[in-house]
User: Fold this.
Amino acid sequence: MSSAGVLRSIASRARAELLAELEASGIEATGDAGAFYPQPVGVLVGLPAYDGRTLGSRRFTIPVLVVSGDPLSSEAAVDAIYALADEVAGALSTPAYRPSSYRSSSSAEPLPAITLEVNVSTEEV
Assistant:
């Protein structure tokens, strides 16, 4: 639910459903990029891309980033980001992910990340 009340767009509802799915799996995630800083790792749900529609629903691809606040200069830091990426991939039934980076407003340098592209279908109401 948004702070303004009921979500009006189907894209926002798809994103909220994805966040709720992660929460139900015991994975802490946020869609608030302005307040996001991983310590030591965190999960950020990005903005939906509209892929099309079917009878009664719309399809979106939503990026989910697993971000490390620590440089990946030790085996433990690498293991931590990939362990969380595996957990997120399992919870969202996403078969693939790739290394990437994330640039926040609070960090001058991009942070190491793993990006999952999650496909979501949301019913039109």
